[in-house]
Design brief:
Layout: E1 11-15, E2 18-21, E3 26-29, H1 32-35, H2 44-54, H3 67-78, E4 84-88, H4 91-110, E5 116-120, H5 129-134, H6 138-141, E6 151-154, H7 159-169, E7 176-181, E8 184-185, E9 191-192, H8 195-208, E10 211-215, H9 230-233, E11 239-242, E12 253-257, H10 277-292, H11 295-316, E13 321-327, E14 330-335, H12 343-352, E15 355-356, E16 358-359, E17 364-367, H13 375-392
Parallel strand pairs: 3-15, 5-6, 5-7, 7-10, 10-11
Antiparallel strand pairs: 1-2, 2-3, 4-12, 8-9, 11-12, 13-14, 14-17, 16-17
């Protein structure tokens, strides 16, 4: 079905941070399957682990105990503030689970008849009907109305907006079950959360017994230079969702919860493929390789090099580039509103220079390379990106 406006590029193989097309041309990959290929392409350790797993066991369903799932769950709990894990197949599914958890929490713990979930404007939480209803961008709603009820929106990083919405909704009685929010808005333009805002958010949610749930689908699993985006903000959520980078290119997602939010009972939620042996072997292998190769340190170093280089581009092209922002290896380049150049034009021009990047809205370029990227490859991203901008100006 015609659901994608694809670029005229057929990629057939990859190694590390590089991809080759069907004509033999080589491209530097700063998309990583949209922040997904954590260890790059055709990683030796991942290939060996998954080949071994395929020779042993792929799938049995959650009717039975799964050794690989239990091992991965224990590892995730050890590395995070969470106590329990529900496995699924994607970020959208993880956020669907968080929405269901929120509603059950509202009914069970707060005796709310019609629980409300607060989310931020400019957010993105997935493509299912419930998760686009939770998404604070009208362009994703268009054509799919009516939206699922029970979502209200506030301005991201705006405490006044958040407090005003709470007072409006809870003037007479408790109505709010949870807040679902990204620690850094990805699709919404690579907007990092402000520490002071999130600190106040945590305090308010704790006081009012509102679940604070982070959407870490894009920021989790080392992308920001810490295991989880919430570590950048100095607070713990009650629950958080993960996917993308945790499988290194293989389909897996999860809802992680603290014990206070561990309220699902048998029959409340399920997934046929979620947490199967193959997917969990991918996840535990990616996690352990991040540890073994000290990739969090690499993300911090390469992220700074990338940030410094993008800042220099901003100085060189002030009429084109407004600012650069982000954490670790999720970086955004904001284009001036008055500029006639948009993100799509730069992405298309970059392909001509054998560089793959992706947009985050019409005026933001997003750069999310594999976490294994080297210094010389960061330099190549910056060189090729500069060439693209010069071409367009």
């Amino acid at each position: 079905m015609e659901t994608y406006q694809r670029f005229p590029l057929t990629l057939i193989r990859g190694k590390g941070c590089w991809l080759w097309d069907d004509c033999g041309e080589r491209y530097l990959d700063a998309v990583a399957g949209i922040a997904t290929c954590t260890l790059g392409h055709s990683d030796d350790a991942l290939r060996r682990a998954l080949t071994h797993q395929l020779n042993k066991l792929q799938h049995v369903s959650n009717l039975y105990q799964i050794k690989e799932q239990e091992e991965f769950a224990a590892w995730l709990v050890e590395k995070s503030c969470a106590d329990k894990v529900f496995f699924c197949n994607s970020g959208a599914e993880a956020n669907e689970a968080a929405i269901k958890l929120s509603r059950k929490y509202g009914h069970l713990k707060k005796n709310i008849k019609n629980p409300i979930i607060l989310t931020a404007k400019a957010s993105f939480h997935g493509r299912t009907l419930a998760t686009i209803s939770a998404t604070g961008q009208q362009n994703y709603h268009k054509g799919f109305e009516p939206m699922v009820k029970g979502f209200e929106f506030f301005n991201y990083n705006d405490l006044t907006s958040f407090k005003a919405l709470i007072e409006k909704l809870e003037a007479d009685s408790p109505q709010i079950a949870s807040v679902i929010i990204e620690p850094l808005q990805g699709e919404g333009g690579v907007n990092p959360g402000h520490k002071n805002f999130f600190k106040s958010l945590r305090e308010i949610c704790t006081k009012r017994k509102i679940l604070l749930i982070f959407d870490e689908v894009q920021t989790g699993f080392g992308r920001t230079g810490t295991w989880w985006g919430y570590e950048q903000l100095g607070i713990d959520p009650d629950a958080f969702t993960i996917a993308k980078g945790m499988g290194g290119g293989h389909a897996i997602g999860a809802l992680m919860v603290k014990q206070t939010a561990n309220i699902f009972k048998p029959g409340d939620h399920a997934s046929t493929f979620g947490g199967n042996p193959f997917a969990c072997k991918a996840g535990i292998t990616v996690g352990r390789e991040i540890e073994r190769r000290k990739l969090l340190c690499n993300v911090i170093k390469r992220g700074k090099e990338l940030s410094d280089g993008l800042h220099n581009l901003q100085i060189s092209f002030p009429k084109i580039i407004k600012e650069t922002r982000g954490w670790g290896l999720i970086r955004g380049l904001q284009i001036q509103e008055e500029s006639t150049i948009n993100a799509k034009a730069i992405v298309e021009q970059a392909i001509k220079h054998k560089l793959l990047i992706v947009s985050a809205g019409q005026k933001v370029i997003r750069i999310v390379p594999p976490l294994i990227i080297k210094e010389r490859e960061i330099k190549q991203i910056l060189i090729r990106l500069e060439m693209c901008i010069r071409d367009l100006t």
